[in-house]
Amino acid sequence: MRHKEIEILIQKSLDHETNGEEERTLQLHLSRCPTCRQFYRELMQTEQALTGLIEFYPRQDFDDRVLRKLGLARSLVWAKAATVLAGAWLGSVLFLLFSPLTEEFFGRVLTSVPALARSIGKIQFAISTFSHVLIPFAKNFNYAFPIIALVFTVLLLYFFSRTTKKEVICRA
Amino acid sequence: MENEADLISGALAGEEEAYRGLLDLYKGRVFSFVYRIVRNYDDAEDITFGTFVRCFKALSSFDPTKSFSTWLFSIAHNLTVDFLRKKKQEYELLDERLPGGDDLVQEYEKNEQLGRIEGALLKLAPIDREIVIFFYREEKSYKEIGEILNIPVTTIKTRLHRARKKLRDLVREKE
Ligand SMILES: [Zn+2]
Prior knowledge:
Distance between the termini of chain A: 62 Å
Number of strands of chain B: 0
Helix content of chain A: over 70%
Strand content of chain B: under 5%
Bound molecules: zinc ion
Helix content of chain B: over 70%
Largest sheet of chain B: none
Order of helices and strands of chain B: HHHHHHHHH
Number of strands of chain A: 0
CATH superfamily of the largest domain in chain B: RNA polymerase sigma factor, region 2, helix turn helix motif
Radius of gyration of chain A: 36 Å
Largest interface: A-B, 38 and 45 residues
Radius of gyration of chain B: 17 Å
Number of helices of chain B: 9
Number of helices of chain A: 8
Mean pLDDT of chain B: 89
Oligomer: heterodimer
């Protein structure tokens, strides 16, 4: 076979389109002809270099810019804010519920920061007023409150995630 | 959500994480492809941006029995060709007026082997660069490349064969 025909066969082989017979013919010729062998090897090296090309990336804020352009980003911000807020609330409820710090410690903190004590007092007043209206049988603060708060947190998280998701659907 | 079909249906249902997942999967591949054709970071980013915006907006018209990447790359290809046309740059011929390489590629040229092949790619016409990238990087079949570029398979084959030989000559020259 002439070199030119072998070149066609080499290209066909690189296209993964040779059959068994053609592949045998090619290999036989390559084993005998240094010129074609050299040509084949260099093409293979080029192929390897091509498959090893590096991937480039756009700038870091690319994803956010695409989503913002589609009107998805604003609701994403809300979804994130809702998650962070609900998470913080859940965290503080859990902290108060299972706090290793003594009541005495909180008392000392509150007396050393009068402003904090005042605002806590106001919150306590609000909670007790609210709970008197809502739950007439709860006369004073008790351990049921954090548990109620916990249940409300979970419900809030759930509905927040539902509404933000809906918003995304509308915008997309 | 890991697999592509899940991500697409998730995106269609409006889940932002699904959009981010698709971007994670494809932004590097699309950007690298566009960048290797236009050879300018900002232009490549603009085209990649336009590609994803168009793709996501038209996602409901995507036929899930077909290849998502082929569809995505055909959008990228169309925007790239529009860009070249606007810039009055050649698509099917090698435009010798264009300076070869820029900072990104020069950075990689420090790696001898990679630099050599990147430099050689620059000496192909954009259409041939596309064919080579789709065949070797994206592992697309001739048929798929034909769909993306909207040209007959025989043309792609002829062009790829010629491009292979030319790349081999160029890489050899530099050795
Ligand atoms: Zn020979």
